[in-house]
Fold this protein.
Amino acid sequence: MSVERILEGLARREPAALARAITLVENQRDGFERVLSHAHGLLGRGGTRRIGITGPPGAGKSTLTEALIQRFRAGGLSVGVVAVDPTSPFTGGALLGDRIRMESVSLDPNVFIRSMATRGAHGGLATTTEEVADLLEAFGFQRIIIETVGVGQTELDIARTAETTVLVLVPESGDGIQTLKAGVMEIADLYVVNKSDRMGADKLRQEVEVMLGIRRGNAFRHVAPHHRSDRARSASDRPTVRPSDAWEPPVLGTVASTGEGVDALVAALDRHYAYLETSGQLAERRRRRLAALTRAVLERGVRRWLVVATRAEELLQQRLDEVADGRRSPYDVAAEILDQVKTGVAR
């Protein structure tokens, strides 16, 4: 289908045109940036909210996503989902596990679910995930849920892509809190202990709450240090004072398979969005996201130009034997290629 026909189909809100537009963007075929430019002009008009669902594998992210879709649809909201699945080592495509688990809502005409492969991208998202979310927003979906692949500590891109990031944990995650803390535990706006009917769920919630208190500097504010028990604390011992209007991330319990706790999660999502609006952070987050996206598009264009408009790849192949047998280093060859590109010799 031509780009013109895709744009015409998007204007008529045809799901088939949306699917083809996503394929065009995901594979970066001719005309994909034209489609994205058209979509950008439609962003920010329909009150769309982007919600990121992240967490370790097996936490029940897909089941929780399905439960959220059901709640949003009960409220009359249309929902678009980008489910980032592991990449098949044979075809390079998504394994489609998330899509299978959300089967109960996949036939709803007001729900659009797209599985994407990571294709080697780090950070829990595919390289074009954010652009696909733009297409879904331009199409008119009122809620967009972005579910990461579940790689654990490195899933930090979601905080830039979504307005609200939900970290899903399970009781079995308790022993892994320390390893998660330095990465994905730092970027969540809401914490959910899923499968909270299991043993250890209350203990995990307490651990997360203590971790958040440590991060805020007030977890042990009522406990005097043993070496200063007989005199006043110094300024360095006093807890950090947070602004009274700062967001306090809640730690919620859910059983996604039965829907328990999901209404409370939806309410918390609404509260966080209202906080972002009133504090001015919503506009600031979107501004930072667009700045990062523009840089990423520029870098992608430069890489494409290096391959298409220069002889960089040809020069690399010519020097590969020298690198392989140790006569030259990859850094020497890269510097030579860049020098030739800069002077125009490599064209």
The radius of gyration is 24 Å. Residues 281-308 form the longest helix (28 residues). The CA atoms of residues 88 and 147 lie 18 Å apart.
